[in-house]
Design goal:
Strand content: 15-25%
Largest sheet: 2 strands, antiparallel
Distance between the termini: 12 Å
Oligomer: single chain
Shape: rod-shaped
Structural class: alpha+beta
Number of strands: 2
Order of helices and strands: HEEH
Helix content: over 70%
């Protein structure tokens, strides 16, 4: 049972981390207009992305910890 929980935590951590990475990359856009580089960023989108990355890391660590402590 613990192996299943550990695997689910690892998969969920990877998925949440992926969503967080996409949120961060989508929150910053840039464009060149007449030789001028214009950048726009969405701070709340970046904050959400970093929160998702942190949550994904915690889930990954929890999954690895659970798999490590499975009795054989």
């Amino acid at each position: 049972m613990n192996k299943i929980i550990g695997a689910v935590l690892i998969i969920a951590g990877l998925a949440v981390g992926y969503v967080g990475f996409n949120k961060i990359s989508e929150s910053t856009k840039s464009a060149n207009v007449l030789g001028l580089k214009i950048e726009a960023s969405n701070q709340s989108g970046k904050q959400q992305g970093y929160l998702f990355l942190g949550l994904g890391a915690i889930l990954l660590l929890g999954g690895f910890y659970t798999l490590k402590n499975v009795k054989k």
